[in-house]
């Protein structure tokens, strides 16, 4: 990151730029080690659960606790490309534009990915 | 918090101790310059290949072939310039790859980049064709690149089927107003007869060493009755490695 400091694009937010480099580096490390990221290592804060409950139209009292308990398992079961956008959206609270900069995909593609990620999450939630 | 502070201090210490410096800015400029230069060159070369495609399609003499009442669909597929189309597709793919690797390339959908590249190369290609570059490239390749000459051979062979009423060759003798001799792609000498009803489908008129494509009927051994004749513009090569062309009338054994 420090090496590439002079390549920083002032039009991007600094955090998006750092996030992008870190993500690319992580992917490249996983590829080098021929490993696949697995296991839930994300902290589930209250605002994440609230966002999910609102977004997926879940019952606040009944589902919130259940979701808190199982969200890690659900996220872990998802395809990496979908998991990534859900984390960026609900954990990181990133806008479409920022997600586009981080994932280096057109904003339209990010929107499609997010919509499919929600579908997959909904399906997995029902199956659980 | 303390861990974070430790990590920051460690980083700063390491940067200072090992005298690590960010890469100079010119390296990034150079990288970007190379990406854009390759993309631009690919667009220009794509335009050149498109100029050859346009030339080859137009050079097909559709109007003459139509007169022979032949299967135009089969004719079309046997004369599609696949070689140049493959090169064109490869260059468009290169443009896509390069643009995607520019700073803001990821913002655009692939199909938009492909479409833009095809449109720009297409328009430039039309301009290059109008300046005669399509023909020039085809001639240079046909005369100097053996595999290319073999590749375009079927295009010429299509016009060497007298039994089907189509024949082409170079005029090597003019006996009278209604009789001349040509040498064909297969180095055969054919006598061509015409009558008052013959239709000349070109501005150029029949002359010694000119290349002609004809439709009509085979009337005997090495004898052809021409109904429609198209005299090719000067400078157009004909036959393997363009061996039949004005100034080079005699076939190479």
Labels describing this entry:
heterodimer, A: 128 residues, mainly alpha, Arc Repressor Mutant, subunit A, 6 helices, 69% helix, globular, B: 253 residues, alpha+beta, OB fold (Dihydrolipoamide Acetyltransferase, E2P), 8 helices, 51% helix, disordered C terminus
Order of helices and strands of chain A: HHHHHH
Radius of gyration of chain B: 28 Å
Strand tally of chain B: 7
Our count of domains of chain B comes out at 2
Helicity range of chain B: 40-55%
Name the chain pair with the biggest interface and residue counts per chain: A-B, 14 and 12 residues
Q: Give the overall average pLDDT of chain B.
A: 84
Task: Characterise the protein shown here.
The complex is a heterodimer of chains A (128) and B (253). Chain A is mostly helical. Chain A has one domain (13-127): Arc Repressor Mutant, subunit A, CATH 1.10.10.10. Chain A is 69% helix and 0% strand. In chain A, helix 4 (80-91) packs across helix 6 (107-127). The mean pLDDT of chain A is 82. The N and C termini of chain B lie far apart (89 Å). Chain B folds into 2 domains: 25-151, no CATH class; 159-242, OB fold (Dihydrolipoamide Acetyltransferase, E2P) (Beta Barrel), CATH 2.40.50. Chain B has a 5-stranded mixed β-barrel with strand order 2-3-4-7-6. With 253 residues, chain B is of the alpha+beta class. Chain B has helices at 2-17, 25-58, 62-67, 72-79, 82-100, 110-130, 133-144, 146-157; strands spanning 160-161, 166-176, 179-184, 189-193, 199-200, 211-220, 223-231. The longest helix of chain B is centred in the N-terminal third of the chain and has 34 residues, at 25-58. Chain B contains 8 helices and 7 strands. Chain A binds chain B through residues 2-7, 9, 100, 104-109, and chain B through 15, 20, 22-25, 28, 103, 106-109.
């Amino acid at each position: 990151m420090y090496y590439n400091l002079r390549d920083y694009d002032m039009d991007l937010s600094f955090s998006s730029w750092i996030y992008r480099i870190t993500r690319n580096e992580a992917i490249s490390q996983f590829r080098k080690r021929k490993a696949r990221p697995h296991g839930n290592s994300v902290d589930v804060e209250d605002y994440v659960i609230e966002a999910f409950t609102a977004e997926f139209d879940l019952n606040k009292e009944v589902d919130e606790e259940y979701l808190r308990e199982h969200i890690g398992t659900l996220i872990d079961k998802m395809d990496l490309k979908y998991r990534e956008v859900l984390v960026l959206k609900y954990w990181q609270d990133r806008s479409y534009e920022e997600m586009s900069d981080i994932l280096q995909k057109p904003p339209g593609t990010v929107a499609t990915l997010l919509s499919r990620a929600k579908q997959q999450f909904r399906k997995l939630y029902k199956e659980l | 918090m303390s861990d974070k502070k430790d990590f920051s201090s460690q980083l700063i210490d390491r940067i200072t101790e090992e005298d690590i410096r960010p890469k100079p800015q010119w390296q990034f400029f150079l990288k970007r310059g190379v990406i854009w230069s390759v993309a631009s060159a690919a667009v220009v070369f794509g335009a050149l290949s498109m100029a050859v495609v346009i030339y080859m399609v137009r050079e097909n003499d559709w109007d003459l072939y139509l007169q022979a009442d032949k299967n135009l669909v089969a004719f079309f597929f046997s004369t599609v310039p696949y070689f140049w189309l493959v090169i064109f597709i490869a260059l468009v793919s290169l443009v896509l790859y390069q643009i995607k690797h520019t700073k803001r390339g990821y913002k655009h959908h692939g199909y938009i980049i492909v479409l833009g590249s095809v449109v720009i190369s297409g328009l430039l290609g039309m301009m290059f064709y109008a300046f005669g570059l399509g023909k020039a490239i085809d001639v240079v390749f046909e005369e100097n690149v053996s595999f290319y000459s073999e590749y375009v051979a079927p295009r010429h062979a299509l016009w060497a089927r007298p039994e089907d009423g189509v024949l082409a060759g170079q005029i090597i003798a003019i006996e009278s107003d209604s009789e001349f001799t040509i040498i064909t792609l297969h180095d055969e000498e054919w006598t061509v007869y015409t009558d008052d009803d013959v239709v000349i489908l070109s501005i150029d008129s029949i002359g010694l060493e000119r290349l002609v494509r004809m439709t009509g009927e085979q009337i005997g051994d090495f004898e052809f009755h021409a109904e429609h004749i198209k005299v090719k513009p000067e400078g157009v090569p004909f036959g393997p490695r363009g061996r039949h062309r004005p100034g080079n009338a005699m076939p190479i054994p």
